[in-house]
Amino acid sequence: MRTPANPQQLSKVSAEPPTPRREPILISPTRARGRLWVWIVPAALAWILLYGLLESVSRWVTYRAIGLDDSTHLARAVQFFLYESPKVLMLLIVVVFGVGIVRSFFTPERTRRALAGTRESLGNVLAGGLGVVTPFCSCSAVPLFLGFVEAGVPLGVTLSFLISAPMVNEVALVLLFGLFGWRVAAIYLGTGLALAIVAGWTLGRLHLERFVESWVYDVRIGMVAEKESLTWNDRLQRAIQAVREIVGKVWPYVVAGIAVGAGIHGYVPEGFMAGIMGKSAWWSVPAAVLIGVPMYSNAAGIVPVVQALLEKGAALGTVLAFMMAVIGLSLPETIILRKVLKLPLIGAFVGIVALGILFIGYLFNALF
Amino acid sequence: MEIEVLGPGCNNCKKLHAETEKALHQLGLEVPVTKVERIDEIVAHGALMTPALVINGKVKAAGRIPSQAELTSWLATAAMDR
Predict the structure, then answer these.
(1) Homologous superfamily assigned to B10-31+39-81
(2) pLDDT tens digits, residue range B1-51?
(3) For residue A357, is it within any domain?
(4) In degrees, to the nearest 5, what angle opens at C-alpha A103 toward C-alphas A112 and A161?
(5) Interface pTM (ipTM) of the complex?
(6) Is A97 inside a domain boundary?
(7) Which of A14, A25, A130 to mutate to test the interface with B (most CBs of B within 10 A)?
(8) How distant, in Å, are the alpha carbons of A136, A151, A328 from that of A198?
(9) Chain A closest CA to B64's CA: distance in Å?
C-alpha cells in the first residue's frame, strides 16, 4: 500500500493535478451546495399547487385529450392510472424527504445506546418505535444484531427492532395513506408496532439465547463511530439524497403496481374478490400468510395491487395480513439472519411473527 | 493512508467502492481501497450499518453512500494529515 508519508511525496501529489477540478475540495461539501432551506417554501408551494391539480388534469387528459367515453372500463382504468401514479409518487417524495430529516437525528449507534440500558418490556416498546425511525436495510441486519447483543440489549428487544424496522416503513405508510386514507395507514402503523413489541417480548420470554450462534458472543466490537455533528443543511442534503435513492429505486414498482391496480379497478367486477378473500372465507387469512411469507416484494410493489383487491371485496384483515407477511417477513432477511441465529430460533421468530399476523388478520376481519 | 470499504458484498457496497476509487482518482491519489467482507471484521471497526467507509481506522460514513464532495474532502484531508 502506498502511503504519502512524507511531505515530498505529498507535494508531488499536489504538484501534478490530474484534472483541473482541484478547487472544490477545499470548499466544504455543505457550503458548495448553498443554503438549501431557502428552497423549502417555494418547493412546498409548487408541490401543493400541483397536487391540487392532479385530479382535474387526469380527468381532462382521459376524457378530453384522449377523448375516452367515461362509461367504459378502459376510461376508468386510464383515469385511475393517470391520477394515482403521480399522486403516490408525489406523496412518496414528501414523506421520504421528511423521514430523511427525522432519520438524520437517529443513528443505529444512538438507538443501540438507548436500548442498552432498558428493561425487557419497556425495551420492546422502545425498540419497536425506534425500528420505525432508525435507518435500516436488511443487508445491515447482521452487524446491527451483533452491535446490539454486544451492548447488552436483550435478545427479545433486539428482535422487536428487527421485526419493526422492515415492516413499518415510510414507503408502506405513504402508499397506504395515499391509496386508502389515513385510517388504514394508522391501523397498519399501530398493528405493525404492536406485533413487533409483542412478538419480540414473547421471543424474549422463551429464553432462546442458546440458539444464537456462539461466535456472536466472541465478536469484539470496535470503537463505535465518532459522533457526527450535522448542520441543518447537511440534514436537508441527506433527505434529498434519500429521496433520490429511494424514489429512484421504487418508482417503477409503484407505477407497475398502479397499472395492475388500474386494470383491476377498471375491469374486475365489484365484489369479485369477496368469495375468495372476503370475510366469509375463514381460510383466506392463513392462505394469505402462507403465500405472503416466502414472497418478497417491497411495499411499493404490493400496496397498489392490494388496494385493487380490497376495492373488489377482499376483507381488510386478509389484505393486511397478506401485506405484512410479504414485506415484514422475507426469505432474504431470514437467510441473512441465519448467520447469527440457529434454525430453532429462526423458526420461532418466523413462527411467532406469522402467528401474530394471523391474529391481526382475523381481528380486523371481525372488527370491520 | 488506509482506506477500507466495509460490507458483505451488497450492491451498495460495490457502489461505495467504486465511488471511493473515483474520488481518489479525482484527487490523483494512488491508494488501494481494501474490501472488508467478513462480518466479524466489519463490526470490529465499529460499523453497525453497511456499507461503511473507514479512512485511517475511523468510520467516516456508515449505512449510506457519501457524495463525491464529501468523499473528496475526507480523502484530501486524510492525505494532507500524513
Answers:
(1) Glutaredoxin (3.40.30.10)
(2) 889 998 887 778 888 999 999 999 988 888 899 998 888 788 888 787 888
(3) yes
(4) 40
(5) 0.70
(6) no
(7) A25
(8) 21, 22, 15
(9) 9
